[in-house]
Amino acid sequence: MNSTLKPTLFPPVIAALCFYTKSEVGITKEDLGQKLNEMYFNYPDKETVVMIHLFGIKYAAEIKEVGISQKELTSIAKNQLSYVTEISKGMKLAKYVKAS
User: Fold this and answer.
1) 8 A C-beta contact, residue 9 and residue 47
2) Higher pLDDT, 84 or 6
3) CA-to-CA distance for 68 and 57, rounded, in angstroms?
4) Model pLDDT for residues 10-27, shown as the tens digit of each residue
5) Which has more confidence, 70 or 7?
6) What phi and psi values does residue 59 have, to the nearest 5 degrees?
7) CB–CB of 84/45 below 8 Å?
8) 47 touches 57 (CB < 8 A)
9) CB neighbours of 99 closer than 8 A, spacing ≥ 6?
10) 40 and 48 in contact (C-beta within 8 Å)?
């Protein structure tokens, strides 16, 4: 059986990871909240949870560096508190993603 993936699923994911950097110097809690908000609201509905995972991957170091809890981050970003777990999942995955 030849299974193919839908190509429309990947462009937002690739776009989000293309700007992955090792660390953003001087980032604030508010900056992180804004970035989470942008990643959440700028992608199609069916990909929002994936984008929250990618946010956790992309900004894991900054979240730890700033010392913000995932709960506080979702509050600043005005997202659902249930996404605390999704951010945490992304942060755990970050150690398996190599920055380019």
Assistant:
1) yes
2) 84
3) 15
4) 445 544 454 444 455 689
5) 70
6) -115, 20
7) no
8) no
9) 20, 21, 22
10) yes
